Amino acid sequence: MLATSLIGLREGLEAALVVGILVAYLTRVGRRDVLPQLWAGIGLAIALALGIGAVLTFGAYALTFQAQELIGGILSLLTVAMVTWMIFWMQRTARTMKRSLEGEVERALAAGGLWAIVIIGFVSVAREGIETTLLLWSMVQSVAGAPDALVGALAGIAASVLLGWLLARGMVRIDLRIFFGWTGAFLVVVAAGILAYAVHDLQEAAALPGPFTTLAPIDAATGAVATGWSAFPFGWAFDVTGAIPPGSTLATLLQATVGFMPQMTWLQVVAWALYVGIVGTAFVRGLRRRPTRSAVDAPSSADRHPSAPEPQGAR
Prior knowledge:
Layout: H1 2-28, H2 35-58, H3 65-93, H4 97-111, H5 114-142, H6 146-168, H7 176-204, E1 236-239, H8 249-258, E2 263-265, H9 266-288, H10 301-304
Antiparallel strand pairs: 1-2
């Protein structure tokens, strides 16, 4: 619940800020008449995300175990790629997000295309919805306690909607640059864990060499797959299932937050370390390039009332 609630909070707040910017701009320019089209696009985006989640959840039941593992591994890789892209996209474009969204709406209104407003609402929320769906699905597949994970995600999304509304009303102050910085770092670690689990799925499907294939090194003394340095690169890196039983609270917490599993292969460990080292370093370097303005131009009281002073709800 902890991990998925944080994900729901971050991803939901991104979507809430985008929606707030669009609604505030249409209100400011006196075009509240096109708000139904905007909400229609947002509704379609939410429906798409829910539909993808339903297909991923129920569509795999008719597949063989190997096919399920193969598809799960590929979708987890897709999730990692999308999350990575979104982390750096937010870091790079957050300063100009408000200006870009308002420009898109202005061009759509000038052209008189009401369907364009629907598309803007759809695209603006769909990318967040699809990313959230894939991310949560990958996490639920990799850890036990799916109902708790979904409850945590819904709680985080609900909190993000409330926080986005409070920001839009100027009733709360939050340094969004710091918020997205910390949650972005958390997502880097989460994505590394999903990557490690994707490698495990692909190894079980025999798409990658590992302990489940004929390339696995065998311990001569026990006849089992070797563990430790002698097992590199296709055996088990470590096995601490005796100290941390799989499915235990500690194991679930570690796997949901940092991607740690009580028994991991060398390919999993290497993939996790490389991802954190490369992506984490690039992310930290991006944070050090301090923006000249706030991390996200959140909707403000000035958007709703042109004569109002500049807000202080988001910095």
